[in-house]
Amino acid sequence: NAGVMQNPRHLVRRRGQEARLRCSPMKGHSHVYWYRQLPEEGLKFMVYLQKENIIDESGMPKERFSAEFPKEGPSILRIQQVVRGDSAAYFCASSPGHLDNSPLHFGNGTRLTVT
Amino acid sequence: EDKVVQSPLSLVVHEGDTVTLNCSYEVTNFRSLLWYKQEKKAPTFLFMLTSSGIEKKSGRLSSILDKKELFSILNITATQTGDSAIYLCAVVYNQGGKLIFGQGTELSVKP
């Protein structure tokens, strides 16, 4: 049973370009979460999605960031017009249901570097 | 403001030592507390705690929750170099849709 799969593992973008990060949850998991980890900081919540629905995006920056989890295919975190401050590790996590009953399982992350 | 605070932020010990990592929280409508271990890659799940006073144990690791005093501890006995990692505490709160992490404790075990 494959774990949470994220790709790419490393992504380098120049300022102003777009970054697209992909996440395939564990089999049977319908809840997806995105977290960002800046150097020397803990994991910061960004967005919580279920299939075709954004449940909570309170951690997403107001501009340039968007996320989706379509009916078919992986969840995508999209960052438009990247800036140096977007450089971070972006982790995706999934769970089979509500967090009351099941812990999050994390992918290995995508390390985004903006040059 | 909802928050999770871990201490110490970093810790250096020698193999065989016992360590205690601390996690305190202030959140709305607490649901559960989780511990994760993060090496170079993904955080890996260690424990999920929902009830006060019940110790969870896995090998040399154990953890307990105090919902009255709003904290949890993670103990590691007879530490090994392979225990070197960042240990993350996280709290599920507010109808279970949110998970907030502490800053982590970076543990380094020297041979």
What can you tell me about this protein's structure?
The complex is a heterodimer of chains A (115) and B (111). With 115 residues, chain A is mostly beta strands. Chain A has no helices and eleven strands. Chain A has strands spanning 5-7, 10-13, 19-24, 31-37, 43-50, 53-56, 65-68, 75-79, 88-95, 105-106, 110-114. In chain A, the strands form two sheets. In chain A, strands 2, 4, 5, 6, 9, 10 and 11 form a seven-stranded mixed sheet that branches. In chain A, a hairpin with a 5-residue loop joins strand 4 (31-37) and strand 5. The termini of chain A are far apart. Chain B contains no helices and eleven strands. The chains are: A mainly beta (115), B mainly beta (111). The A-B interface holds A 3-4, 33, 35, 41-45, 48, 55-56, 91, 98-100, 103-109 and B 31-32, 34, 36, 41-45, 48, 88, 90, 92, 96-104.
Rounded to the nearest angstrom, the radius of gyration of chain B is 13 Å
Radius of gyration of chain A: 13 Å
Any low-confidence stretches of chain B, pLDDT <50, length ≥5? none
What's the count of strands of chain B? 11
Assess the beta-strand content of chain B as a share of residues. over 45%
Helical segment tally of chain A? 0
Structural class of chain A: mainly beta
> Order of SSEs of chain B, N→C?
EEEEEEEEEEE
Helix content of chain B: under 10%
Largest interface: A-B, 23 and 22 residues
Low confidence ranges of chain A: none
What's the number of helices of chain B?
0
Number of strands of chain A: 11
Beta-strand residue fraction of chain A = over 45%
Determine the oligomeric state from the structure: heterodimer
**Strand pairing plus helix content of chain B: what structural class?**
mainly beta
Task: Average the pLDDT over all residues of chain B and give the rounded result.
Answer: 93
Shape call of chain B: globular
Largest sheet of chain B: 6 strands, mixed
Q: Share of helix among residues of chain A?
A: under 10%
